[in-house]
Hints:
- Chain A is mostly beta strands.
- Chain A has strands spanning 4-7, 10-13, 19-25, 31-37, 43-51, 54-57, 64-66, 76-78, 87-94, 103-104, 108-112.
- In chain A, strands 2, 4, 5, 6, 9, 10 and 11 form a seven-stranded mixed β-sheet that branches. Chain A has a four-stranded antiparallel β-sheet with strand order 1-3-8-7, with no helix packed on it.
- The termini of chain A are far apart.
Amino acid sequence: NAGVTQTPKFRILKIGQSMTLQCTQDMNHNYMYWYRQDPGMGLKLIYYSVGAGITDKGEVPNGYNVSRSTTEDFPLRLELAAPSQTSVYFCASTIQTGGQPQHFGDGTRLSIL
Amino acid sequence: LAKTTQPISMDSYEGQEVNITCSHNNIATNDYITWYQQFPSQGPRFIIQGYKTKVTNEVASLFIPADRKSSTLSLPRVSLSDTAVYYCLVGGTNDYKLSFGAGTTVTVRA
């Protein structure tokens, strides 16, 4: 049981490039989340999904897109990378909202130069 | 969603008890209180959750007064490895968007 797996762990992009951050979970959780965490700050919600085929915006969705074609996978796409997107990205999942704890991956550290 | 307020930072020494209080004045009837711990370069990790009164597990205790407008996470006999950021979250089963604030940075010194 691997939990929540994120790939890659590190990535450097040039301004304007695009990439997809992968997230997969093997706990059959319906709810999945993407957060970003800037240095010394808390986590900000980018997008979330309540099940396959259903996604919605969080606090800071601009510049990102997501899809949820399966229960297991929730990739996050950056279309035109900008320096402001330099951050650590965390994916999380939970079996139920609010009252149930979220399980987090180890993060992807992304630098845009 | 209930807004939470917790101290930005706390310092302690090995072997001491650390108590972090989180204020959540507008907590709703069906809201749970959940605490997470985050070490550098890692994702947050669930440590404890409660609804009312007191909850204890092998890591921490959570004290919730009758009015539920605040909660206190208690870490007994901390060690250097307890140095981390601790987040207090409040939400119910219909809250899809939980808010992680800046958390409380706990620094344990030898």
